[in-house]
User: Which sequence fits this backbone?
């Protein structure tokens, strides 16, 4: 059973407080890669997931078979994309903010 679901059951089906926030990540010098300000970070096995507004998103590849794609809330790296465009290489796929810090933080919960 997923840890988040177990937490909901133990808490009497009330929604858990966000345990991952943009402010906390940035305060600790970590990158916040998402367009939303907060949510619930979890891990099952080696699958890292992020919950926001009732949807559980796959943060790493191990979670991709069981959770929704994170792309709808994953921020584009505007600075890097602008630099690529200025250098004449802006026709490729747009780059996203590195999600490595979120994966690392999530794996600590496993």
Assistant:
């Amino acid at each position: 059973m997923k840890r988040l679901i177990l937490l909901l059951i133990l808490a009497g089906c009330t929604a858990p407080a966000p345990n991952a926030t943009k402010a906390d990540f940035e305060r600790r010098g970590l990158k916040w890669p998402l367009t939303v300000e907060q949510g619930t970070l979890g891990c099952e096995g080696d699958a890292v997931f992020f919950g926001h507004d009732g949807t559980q998103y796959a943060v790493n590849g191990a979670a991709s078979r069981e959770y929704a794609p994170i792309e709808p809330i994953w921020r584009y790296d505007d600075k890097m994309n602008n630099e690529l465009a200025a250098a004449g290489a802006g026709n490729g796929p747009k780059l996203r903010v590195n999600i490595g810090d979120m994966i690392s933080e999530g794996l600590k919960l496993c």
